[in-house]
Every structure is written in C-alpha cells, then in structure tokens.
Design brief:
- The protein is α/β, with parallel strands linked by helices.
- It folds into 3 domains: 4-56 and 229-301 and 397-435, FAD/NAD(P)-binding domain; 81-106 and 304-395, Guanine Nucleotide Dissociation Inhibitor, domain 2 (2-Layer Sandwich); 119-218, Guanine Nucleotide Dissociation Inhibitor, domain 1 (Orthogonal Bundle).
- The chain is built from 12 helices and 19 strands.
- The strands form 4 sheets. Strands 1, 2, 10, 11, 12, 13 and 19 form a 7-stranded mixed sheet that branches. Strands 8-7-15-16-17-14-18 form a 7-stranded mixed sheet. Strands 5-9-6 form a 3-stranded antiparallel sheet.
- Helix 1 packs parallel to helix 9 (232-243) and helix 1 (14-25) crosses helix 12 (421-435).
- It is globular.
- The N and C termini lie far apart (48 Å).
Length: 450
C-alpha cells in the first residue's frame, strides 16, 4: 500500500462513521478500518447468532426465538431526538435517503413506585397523575415562560437571566414542587443527575425547548428510531463516505499505530503492511483502552467510570406502558436513592429488530457500587418476565490530549444517556480539532413513519 491518505479512521462506531462521511464530503482522502467483520463497533446491532457469540460463545440461540435474520439487537440503547443535533447531521448529509425512521410510541417516567406517561399533549397534561391541579397550573406558566422567551425582548424574561441565574432560581420563581422538578430535569431535559440545578439555566432551557419541539413535531414522543436498528446509522455514513471516495476495510487487524521520530502519527501497521496518512481518528479501543485501564496513554477512564447495560429479550410489552410497541422509561435517581438515573429503552418487531411478539428492552445506568447488576434491579423489576438477559459493564474512556500535537484524535466512549446528543457533541469537538474550524450544518426536514 503505497498510497497516502489524508485521514485513517479506526473503528466503525457511529462517531467514527459520521466523521469519515463528513470528511469525505469535504474532499479528504479517507481510509476506514475495523477489526470486526461488521459495522458499528460498540454501537453495532447484532443478529441472534452474533449476540450469543458476543455474550455466550458456547451457547446456541434458543430455537423459540425465531430466525437469526429477524434480529438486529443494539449493544448501546439510544433514541434520536426529532429536533436534535443528530437529525440535523442526517439531513445535512442527505444520509436520510438510506434510512427509514419510525416513531417511539411513548416516553414514561417512574414516580412513587409506578410509571406514568410524560404528557405529549395539553389533554394528556391535564389528565396526568404526575401533578396535582394547582401544580399543573404552575407548570403551565413555567412552560409558557420557556416557549415565550426571546433573548432580545426583556419583557419575556420575567426578571430572570438565563446566563446568570441557576435552574434552582427558575424553578423557585414558578414555585414548582420537587417531584415536578424531577420530571422536568430528568424526563425532559434528560439530565442523568441533579448537578444541573445549581448551574446556569440556559443549557436546561435549551434542552427542554428541544424536547418540547421534538414532541410537537410528530406527537406521541420526541424520539425516532431507524428501522433495522441503530447499526443502520454507521452503515449509512459509510455509504456516504464511499460515494465521495472513502475506502472501507472490515475484518482488518490493526497491529500498531506508527509514529515518526518527532512523536507524530505517520501510519497504521496491519499484517506486515504500513498505510500512511497525515491524521488518525479512532475509538478508544485502538489506543490501549481495554488492554490496561487506559491510564497514562492516549485515553483515560472518566470520573463516572463505567456503564452497566442489560439487554433483555421479552415475550410481552412492558407492563403499565399501554401495550406500547416501543418506549423510553426514565427512573430519576432520587426515586431509587441513587446518584444517576436508570434508563429503559424498548423496541420491537415494529422496528424490524426482532421476531414477531418479541420485545427488546435495554436497562442501563452509570455504575456506583461494586454490584452493577443490583443497581439496575429497579429497571429490571419493571419489565415483567425476562426470557433472556445479557449484562455488560463497560468502562467510559475519554482522550488525554486534543491530538493537535501528534495528529492522533481519539473519540469518547458511548455514555449512559438514552439519546445521541453527547455523541454529536463529540463529533463537533473532534471535527474542530482535526479540521481547525467549526462544523456547519444546513437545516432540512426528516420524514418519519407514524
């Protein structure tokens, strides 16, 4: 291989595939390699055989689960927020032509021992058991304030400064109860813990407005999901890259990251050959993560440490969700005496990810003790009878340096959030470091099946 590339991308996770697609469109010569024989890396969707091979190498899938090819089970559970940043990237790159989306039927929140639907209409809000009558009035004023806010018009500010006042101040101004704050902060602003309350209100305001505008876009819930699973997303960006001249190599071992005498990246060694390039982008597993604890190299384990995820195969919808074919359920941390929320994401045969009358539910949270599986018990207990369960505990890695000095750019691990906004933040961050300028996106609409 005498060819020299502008960028080599290692790993076909969503972050890496978005970057290789965008860089190819920008005219860069991209080579994309992955040690696996499937797309998606840590964010892949596996068929039944791959799922069992991944978690239980010595066991065949039970025949009663149906055909192998009916399954596309996500390793990392995430939904797409209809008005979010990932939707903007999908539309900007026109990758939507390779994908079909379906709506997630409902968003639920756990409160006082039971699950309730996050209201998606005025009517549902009036009937919702999440708030009493007077609290509903206060909440209505709070949402009207957020929707009516205009930066340039002080008459809409009601004495609040979003860039100086904390979210606590905003909640107190409208007299919202702790339970309502819980539901707004965790089920709508989608924070994993309560740290946001003491910080300035602007990011929370933006998150809540994004949630409500996503809800308004398609009704029912703010989330959409690609048919055939999340593994379709990296594959679609890989197609985009290929159209613009990107080269893909799956099942390709990476033996060494080659550095020059000055410590800068020069190429990647694979099976006795060295491919040269000016820059390399890759997921943490290609830079020492997993072999050691990752400390002291290109990556380190972040403070939150680890995510525990349980992939559960069910033969029924989750009880108490109105027999929905797909849901998100959030268990706010203080409802179960934790520091971090527990998430449940469920999809079904409607999304072409499993056989008919089968449901795939994934329960996840950030690990806080030395008994991770016990920590997700409140989520597992909501699922009813579980046919099969696969539990993983994954460390969360982040790069130790910007990569600007040695041309080695490492992406972050997929966190415990149930949406892709943090993935897109990472895409923007890596793009800025690799290209030296901000990524600008055009806005168009995305089509969704109801």
């Amino acid at each position: 291989m005498d060819e020299e590339y502008d960028v080599i991308v290692l790993g076909t996770g969503l972050t890496e595939c978005i970057l290789s697609g965008l860089l190819s469109v920008e005219g860069k010569k991209v080579l994309h390699m992955d040690r696996n024989d499937y797309y998606g890396g840590d964010s892949a969707s596996l068929n039944l055989t791959q799922l069992y091979r991944h978690f239980r190498p010595n066991q065949e899938p039970p025949a009663e689960l149906g055909r192998d090819r009916d399954y596309n089970v996500d390793l990392v559970p995430k939904f797409i927020i209809a008005s979010g940043e990932l939707t903007k990237i999908l539309v900007h790159t026109d990758v939507t032509r390779y994908l079909e989306f379906k709506q997630i039927a409902g968003s639920f929140v756990y409160r006082d021992g039971k699950i309730s639907k996050v209201p998606s209409t005025e009517m549902e809000a009036v009937k919702s058991p999440l708030m009493g009558l007077f609290e509903k009035r206060r909440a209505k004023k709070f949402f009207e304030f957020l929707q009516g806010w205009k930066d340039e018009d002080p008459s809409t500010h009601q004495g609040i400064n979003l860039d100086k006042d904390s979210m606590k101040t905003v909640y107190e101004k409208f007299g919202l109860e702790a339970g309502t704050q819980d539901f707004i902060g965790h089920a709508m602003a989608l924070y994993l813990d309560d740290d946001y309350i003491t910080k300035v209100a602007r990011p929370s305001y933006e998150r809540i407005v994004m949630y409500t505008s996503s809800m308004a876009r398609y009704g029912k819930s703010p989330y959409i999901y690609p048919l055939y699973g999340l593994g379709e997303l990296p594959q679609s960006f890989a197609r985009l890259s290929a159209i613009y001249g990107g080269t893909y190599m799956l099942d390709k071992k990476v033996d060494e990251i080659v550095l020059g005498p000055d410590g800068k990246f020069v190429g990647v060694k694979s099976g006795g050959e060295t491919v040269k390039a000016k820059q390399v982008i890759g997921d943490p597993s290609y830079f020492g993560a997993g072999k050691t604890d990752g400390e002291g190299g290109k990556v380190r384990v972040i403070e939150e440490g680890k995510v525990v995820r349980a992939i559960c195969i069910l033969k029924h919808p989750i009880p108490g969700t109105e027999d929905s074919d797909s849901v998100q359920i959030i268990i706010p941390q203080n409802q179960v005496g934790r520091r971090n929320d527990i998430y449940i994401a469920m999809v079904s045969s409607t999304h072409n990810v499993c056989a008919k009358d089968v449901y795939i539910a994934i329960v996840s949270t950030i690990v806080e003790t030395d008994k991770p599986e016990l920590e997700i018990a409140p989520g597992l207990n909501l699922l009813g009878q579980i046919s099969e369960k696969f539990v993983t505990v994954s460390p969360l890695y982040t790069p130790t340096s910007s990569g600007v000095d040695d041309s080695i750019f490492v992406t972050r691990s997929y966190d415990a959030t149930s949406h892709f906004e943090t993935v897109v933040d990472d895409v923007h961050d890596v793009w800025r470091r690799v290209v030296g300028k901000d990524l600008e996106l055009k806005k168009r609409e995305v089509e969704v099946e109801a």
